[in-house]
Structures are given as C-alpha cells and as structure tokens.
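#struct-pred

JT: dropping the chains for the assembly here, can someone run the whole complex?
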Amino acid sequence: GENVEQHPSTLSVQEGDSAVIKCTYSDSASNYFPWYKQELGKRPQLIIDIRSNVGEKKDQRIAVTLNKTAKHFSLHITETQPEDSAVYFCAASMSNTDKLIFGTGTRLQVFP
Amino acid sequence: DVKVTQSSRYLVKRTGEKVFLECVQDMDHENMFWYRQDPGLGLRLIYFSYDVKMKEKGDIPEGYSVSREKKERFSLILESASTNQTSMYLCASSWGGIRYEQYFGPGTRLTVT
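RK: done, full complex below.
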C-alpha cells in the first residue's frame, strides 16, 4: 500500500552539529515532498518542499535532497540551534489517490 | 496572513456521544483537510474536501463524517464517540490542493471517556 517511512524516530545532536532525517516512499509517481516542523504544543508548519523535477533545494540552514531512483528524500539541517528542537514530518504525494501521506515523525533535540 | 481556527483546544466527551469539531479558515481556500495525530503514527488523513459540499475519504474515515456547507468551514463529526477516537485532531487548508502548502489549525485534543 501507499506509505512513507521516516527515520530516525528520535535524534539528539549538539548545538552546531548537522542533523539528517530520511524518508522513503512507495509510489514511484510521487512528485511533491514537503517537510513540516511542529514545535511543542504548536501547529505543524511547512519549512521546505521539493518537487520531483529537482534534486536538491536549499533555504539558509535547511536543505532537502531527492533521489527518485531510490525513492527517498532527506532533510538536512546544518549548524543546528536549540530552536530547531521540534518534531519534523516528511510527506509525499500519492498519484493514484491524490493524497498526501505523512511519515511518522522525527523528534529532534538540540542540546546547547 | 492565513488563519485557521478550530472551535475547541480541549474537549472531553463520553462514549456514545455525537461530537462536532469545527474548523474555519479566512483565506478563501478551496481545499480543507482533517487529520488525526497520534504518537508514533504521524498525521493520518481522515477526510478532505476540494469544494463546498464535496468530500473525499482519507485513510481512516471509519467512525467519522464531515460537512462542508460553506467554503470557509469544514466540520468533523464523530457519530458515536469511542475511546479509540481519543486523539489530537488537526484541521488544515490550502489553496491549490495537496501539492501546495497546508496551513494547520491549533488542534483539538479530544478525550473520550
């Protein structure tokens, strides 16, 4: 069935280090891959997205890479700061059902 | 600035009660969504709507129904609440379907006892 797997479920890093979260998807026709950040007690918010016609996208300290052949995409956060601590969700669009399927989330903790 | 509001932040209901969760957006978005968020399971789509009076089933529609009589309002209905529907419910809206940013509401934490 349609699914998106996300790893790791928890990630702890020291401030200043990089963090990488990986997702794999099942639908080879998926063409839209957003990442949402949810701080504790707050609503999810889009931080970056990528479409299947590009392999990488950057926005300041965050970047997303997409490997369509392997059907996986990753979120990279460089120079992490305590305010990066949150739960991050990846998602992928499913072509046959026109739905967005979310991963199970990664809790990132950045220690000062 | 997009604003999505939900009728309650916290709600406690008894098993068997009919429960209404309301969501309102003020940006004239065509598309609205209801998700359920549970620890370790991420965000799961319950129902969505692309237009007034239109509704489509998501991944977990059993036990739920929806209503969209006006463009700005999307209601989630639990016909007969059960304890396994205790969860965080998130509403979202977008202007261009699933391949565009979804703006989420603050969520309603529902407890069914």
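JT: nice. Chain B has a mean pLDDT of 95. DSSP finds no helices and eleven strands in chain B.
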